[in-house]
């Protein structure tokens, strides 16, 4: 017997057979005005200038590992640009968003696709309005966000009908976790930017669609439209808006209502962000 290898069982084995699919017990949120629970921690990657890790609760399971969105972000810089680069009076911001191959129901490739590049553009726009860029002339900073687990229900047979609404929640998480990593790197910002999502959904028990915060795609019959906003709460400024879907023609104020509800979600996520930043400050010091 070769003790250096893991040997299989001596006799034959039978793989398990499940007669019925596993049934998940949905955890009802208090109301549609509340976002899912968020776990945020900074300083998870010592080799980077700043880093952060974010988890969002999965409302469709009661298992100990019930999280539907997992993100990690690393910040490298600011560092001097090469001598061959043209002079820039502001910092050069580079954002890179990538799904892990196992993050979604459909396996992702190792090369970024168009959806990942779009997320990177939205993330750069959201963060550019928060960073004080003229503090670091002819410098660059790289912000890398890795999506470990996407906001999807992998056991739902109707997943193909979701039409990519989970990308809104992914972008919202990318904005929040990147803001925490930037603060961990000590990069000066005018405010802590956070992301929030509001969606116009149609429920089976209701005839009229309603606006909910932080929508869980698997919990609703159909999503008609969604809006993701990046918001600076102290300055009361919006740095990025991504809207998708169609609004009812009879309600001309539906767009404004969705943006307002998205700001409420941003403020809730910002409270978690500020609390995580206060926890990383050593005792006896005050956060700047």
Task: Note down, in words, how this protein is organized.
The protein has 288 residues and is α+β, with helices and mostly antiparallel strands. The chain has a single domain (38-279), classed as Ribosomal Protein S5, domain 2. Helix content is 21%, strand content 27%. It is built from 3 helices and 9 strands, in the order ββββαβαββββα. It has helices at 114-128, 166-184, 254-280; strands spanning 38-42, 50-57, 67-80, 92-99, 139-149, 194-202, 210-213, 222-232, 237-245. The strands form 2 sheets. The protein has a 5-stranded mixed sheet. It has a 4-stranded antiparallel sheet with strand order 7-6-8-9. A hairpin with a 7-residue loop joins strand 6 and strand 7. Helix 1 crosses helix 2 (166-184) and helix 2 packs parallel to helix 3 (254-280). The N and C termini lie far apart (62 Å). The mean pLDDT is 84.
Summarize this entry quickly.
The chain is of the alpha+beta class and 288 residues long. It has helices spanning 114-128, 166-184, 254-280; strands at 38-42, 50-57, 67-80, 92-99, 139-149, 194-202, 210-213, 222-232, 237-245. The chain has a single domain (38-279), classed as Ribosomal Protein S5, domain 2.
For the largest beta-sheet, the strand count, sense and barrel status come to:
5 strands, mixed
In terms of DSSP E residues, the strand content is 25-35%
Helical amount? 10-25%
- Largest beta sheet: what is the strand line-up? 1-2-3-5-4
Helix run count: 3
Annotated CATH homologous superfamily: GHMP Kinase, N-terminal domain
User: What distance separates the N and C termini?
Assistant: 62 Å
Name the helix and strand elements from N-terminus to C-terminus, one letter apiece: EEEEHEHEEEEH
Round the Cα radius of gyration to an integer and report it.
21 Å
Low-confidence stretches: none
Under the CATH scheme, which architecture would be assigned?
A: 2-Layer Sandwich
Q: Which structural category fits the helices and strands?
A: alpha+beta
**How many strand segments?**
9
Quickly name the level 1 CATH class: Alpha Beta
Which of globular, elongated, flat, extended, rod-shaped describes the shape? Answer: globular
The CATH topology, please?
Ribosomal Protein S5, domain 2
